[in-house]
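Full entry
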Amino acid sequence: MTTRRQFLKRITFFTASIPFFNSFKIKRGYSKGTIRKPVVISTWWFGVEANKAAWKILTSGGRALDAVEAGVKVPEADPKVKSVGYGGLPDRDGRVTLDACIMDEFSNCGSVAFLEHIKHPISVARLIMEKTPHIMLVGEGALQFALSNGFKKENLLTPEAEKEWKEWLKNSEYKPWDFQDIHDTIGMLAIDQKGNLAGACTTSGLKYKMHGRVGDSPIIGAGLFVDNEVGAATATGVGEEVIRVAGAHTVVEYMRNGYTPEEACKLTIERILKRFKNMENLDIQVGFLALNKKGEYGTYAILPDFEYAVYSEEEGIQLKKSKSIY
C-alpha cells in the first residue's frame, strides 16, 4: 500500500519532471506574441448579420461569451434561415426540434438537444451552464427547464416551412445530406479584447430527419470546443461524420501541437475521409472553422460550397469561401 509520504514524493518528482517532458513536445500553437483581437467568425451567409451583433459587444469591451450568444440569436430568430431556430425545416413528423451548445474561456459549457417550442435554444444552453450542475438537458426536460426560467413556448414551424414539409411528404424521399439549400448549423467563435475565447453552435438539424435525431451541434467536443490556452473550433455539415472523429476537439488538439487553424481543419477533414473507400460518389459536406489564441483563423471543408463570415478591425466584415478537398 502506498503511504502518504510515498505519494507526496512521487507527486514532487512528477512536478519537477514536467519541464523535462515538455521539452520533447512539438512547439505549441499558442506561443506568446501579439494577439489580434477582437475577432469573430461564423459559418455560412447568415453569419454576416450574426457577426455584426457580436461585434457590437466585442468592440465595447464585452466578453466573447456574451458576443457569441448575441450573435447566433440573430439567425435563431430569422425565419429566412431554414436550418436554425424559428423557421427551421422540421423533422419527418413536422416538428421543429433544436440543438445548441455554448462554451466559455473557463471550460464552462451548456447544451440542449431535441428541444421544441423555444426560439432561442442557445440562451437555454447558457442558462443550463450557469444555473445547474449539468451540461446537457434534452427533450421534455430541457423544455420544462426553459419554461421554468421564463422562456416562452412558441410555434416555430412557419407557414413557409410547413408548406415545404407537406410538399416533401408527397414522396417522402429522404436525402439527409442534400445541401442545395445550404441547410445547416451556425457555429460562431470569438476572441475578445482581453484575449479570451468563447464559442456557440445552434441548429434545427437535418431537414426531415427521423424524429429524435441529434447531430454534432449540441455535443461539446464534436460541434464545438474551446480551450482558452490554445483556440476554439466549430463544425458544420453532416453531424454523424463530425461525431465519429470528435471533430472540434480534434481541430483544437492539432492547433495545440503547432498547426495553424487552417492546417488543423484540413487534417481533421482528411481524418473523416479515411473511412470512405469510394471518393468519386462522395456527396456529404463537412466544414470546420477554427480560431487560435493569437486571433488567427482558418477553415477547411470537403466540398467547395462552404462559406464563412469574419469580422475584424483589419478586414472589416467579409463573407469568404473556404478551401476544400474537392
